[in-house]
Design goal:
Arc Repressor Mutant, subunit A, Rna Polymerase Sigma Factor, Chain: A, single chain, 9 helices, mainly alpha, 70% helix, 2 domains
Length: 203
C-alpha cells in the first residue's frame, strides 16, 4: 500500500481506469473527466453518508457537495500510491464526519432506512409477502446498531472493501479492524436474536 509508486500494468482494470481519468483531468482540466471519475464511486460514498447521517437526505446532499468540491481541490495532490477508491472513500469519511460535527446541533429526526441501500434485487410479487417482515426486521435492527458498527458492516459486507483497505481508510492496524468487525457482527446477531424473540412473544 505504501511501497513503490504503482504503474498501470500492476493494477486491476478498475484502478487503472481511475488513474487514466485522473491524469486526463489533471492534463486537460476537462470537467467531464472529473465527473466520470466521481460517478464511478458515488454509490459507495452515498451509502457511507447514509450511515453517517442516518438517512437525513438534505444533510447527505450538502455533505456530498462538500466532499466532491474537496476532492476537486485536492486531486492534484493524489500520489498514485494507493487505489483511488480507497483514497476517495477515506477523504469522504473524514469530510463527512466534519460535516456531521458541524450540523449535529441541528440534527433532524432520522429518516427511514431505504431498502435499496443494500443494492438487493426487488423480490417478485409472490416473494414479497414472505420476505417483507424479515427484511424490515433486518434493516430496523441494522439502524439500531451504533454508528461505528454500521460503518464496518457497510464497508465489508456491502461495499466489499478488504480488511487491508479498511485499515488504510480508518488508519488503524488490521488486527483492530478484525476485532471490531467481529464485535460488530456479534452485536448484529444479538440484536436480530432479541428482535426475533420479541416478535414471537407478541404472537
Amino acid at each position: 500500500m505504501h511501497g513503490r509508486k504503482a504503474v498501470a500494468g500492476d493494477l486491476p482494470n478498475e484502478e487503472s481506469e481511475d488513474f487514466v481519468l485522473i491524469r486526463r483531468f489533471l492534463r486537460t482540466g476537462d470537467p467531464g473527466e472529473f465527473r466520470t471519475l466521481v460517478e464511478r464511486h458515488l454509490p459507495s460514498i452515498r451509502r457511507l453518508l447514509y450511515t453517517l447521517f442516518n438517512g437525513q437526505r438534505e444533510e447527505m446532499e450538502d455533505a456530498e457537495q462538500e466532499i466532491v468540491l474537496n476532492l476537486f481541490q485536492r486531486l492534484k495532490d493524489f500520489q498514485f500510491r494507493s487505489s483511488f477508491r480507497t483514497y476517495f472513500y477515506r477523504l469522504a469519511r473524514n469530510r463527512g464526519i466534519d460535516c456531521l460535527r458541524k450540523k449535529r446541533s441541528q440534527d433532524r429526526a432520522a429518516a427511514r432506512l431505504r431498502l435499496d441501500m443494500w443494492n438487493r434485487e426487488a423480490p417478485g410479487p409472490e416473494e414479497q409477502v414472505v420476505h417483507r417482515e424479515e427484511t424490515e426486521t433486518l434493516l430496523a435492527v441494522f439502524q439500531t446498531l451504533p454508528s461505528k458498527y454500521r460503518q464496518l458492516i457497510l464497508m465489508k459486507d456491502v461495499d466489499g472493501f478488504t480488511l487491508e483497505e479498511m485499515a488504510d481508510i480508518l488508519e488503524v492496524p488490521i488486527g483492530t479492524i478484525k476485532s471490531r468487525l467481529h464485535r460488530a457482527r456479534e452485536k448484529l446477531a444479538e440484536y436480530i436474536a432479541f428482535s426475533d424473540h420479541s416478535r414471537r412473544g407478541r404472537r
